[in-house]
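$ ./design --mode recover --in tokens.txt
reading tokens...
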């Protein structure tokens, strides 16, 4: 059985690989939450995600699913936190990517 830390490290590496070429200027951050048989990620945009953004999220999710087949359920979802607020981590989430912002 793999330890929680090893599962998280593996998921972060898989996510960073899936994000290659998928980071747009509007992407503020990417989070990940890892359970024993679950990887959940949010791609957080500075505005409501467009159809193009949603397509990128779907492509990232597909890459993550391919990395884990068939053992782990994977979900990558688009989210929006507008520039007036800083994106906050939800319980058990970790940052995979976070854009540098003033302030």
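writing sequence...
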């Amino acid at each position: 059985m793999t330890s929680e830390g090893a599962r998280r490290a593996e998921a972060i590496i898989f996510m960073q690989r899936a994000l290659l070429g998928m980071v747009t200027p509007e992407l503020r951050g990417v989070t990940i939450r890892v359970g024993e048989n679950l990887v959940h990620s949010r791609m957080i945009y500075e505005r409501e995600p467009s159809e193009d953004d949603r397509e990128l999220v779907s492509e990232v999710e597909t890459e993550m699913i391919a990395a884990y087949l068939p053992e782990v359920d994977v979900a990558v979802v688009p989210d929006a936190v507008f520039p007036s607020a800083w994106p906050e981590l939800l319980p058990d989430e970790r940052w995979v990517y976070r854009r540098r912002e003033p302030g």
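exit 0
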